[in-house]
Amino acid sequence: MELTPERLAGQLGSEPLRPAYLIAGPEPLRVLEAADALRVHARGQGYVEREIFDADGRGFDWGALQATFRAPSLFASQRLIELRLPTAKPGKDGAAVIAEFCADPPGDILLLVTGGEWSRQHGGKWSEAIGRIGHVVVAWAVKPHEMSDWIERRLRSRGVAADRDAVQRLAELVEGNLLAAAQEVDKLALLSDGTPLGAPLDLARMEALVADAARFDVFRLIDAALNGQAAPAARMLAGLRAEGAAVPALMGMVVMELQRAAALAQVQARGGNLASEFRAQRVWESKQAVFRRALQRHGVERWERFLAEAGRIDRIAKGRAAGDAWQALERLLLAVAEPRAVALLGQH
């Protein structure tokens, strides 16, 4: 039976650890937190060794993973073996290795498979094999009508209560971005002066405590573009402009993220180890799915074109080239978010 991340967290303390777990889905925050909960619980149960395998390219050595399953522990202890499948598709060879493990799991190994994507078509005999001896946990994206309930539960888990209007307002501000919602909840837990659960935050207090991140946060502006959210990116940019932000002040972050994407695209194009490049580029696990979606939309040449356009925008903003810097920046972000908008680049 398929579990939710929240259901998994509740079951960990009420049953013995299973030999294998699959945690995957399109919502990276929920995948990350469910996997973290399992890691912490496993450590408490004596799984002190941890080995990580990143199967993010065609050149991954499934034989090495298979050998690890068969090899005894160097320290005579229980081991947590993590297999990271960004696409949640192990391929024929990988599926065979996973199924073989599940047919006769070693008593000292706990297998955790994580994936950054999931759909009804992702499953197969390998995931069914995990389900027979363990649990399959799917972190579906939180739907718009579910966001308020998710935020309210998150607030309560941090010791903060809020009335319905305040929760709904926070849901509107984060515009469906679960990571942004989690960050705002953590901020509220720090700023609400330990408001007891019996005295919930009202709308006025919520608005006083929470910055309108959906409009004014440059980090989320770029994330929206990378994530393919053209309309929210345009709204956030308009908000930054209304607040008096200057284009040159934004371009440093824009260029940095475009450079990261270009470097990742080059590694992906030559079939290299994308997981290693994520580490080299210091891209957090929670943000890797955002970059992967962006890489699916654009190839190396287009990322280089985006960087060249960013350089042109910076020159415009500094008075060294003709044009409207705000309009050019908007077109660049829209092109990153939506391939059909690439044709707008460079237009005056």
Low-confidence stretches: 212-216
Q: How many H/I helices?
A: 17
Helicity range:
55-70%
CATH superfamily of the largest domain: P-loop containing nucleotide triphosphate hydrolases
Mean pLDDT metric: 87
**How many domains?**
3
Structural class determined from secondary elements: alpha/beta
Q: In CATH's first tier, which class of the largest domain applies?
A: Alpha Beta
The CATH architecture of the largest domain can be named as 3-Layer(aba) Sandwich
Radius of gyration: 23 Å
Strand order of the largest sheet: 1-6-2-5-4-3
Protein name: DNA polymerase III subunit delta
InterPro entries: DNA_pol3_clamp-load_cplx_C, DNA_pol3_delta_N, DNA_polIII_delta, P-loop_NTPase
Organism: Luteimonas salinilitoris
GO molecular function: DNA-directed DNA polymerase activity
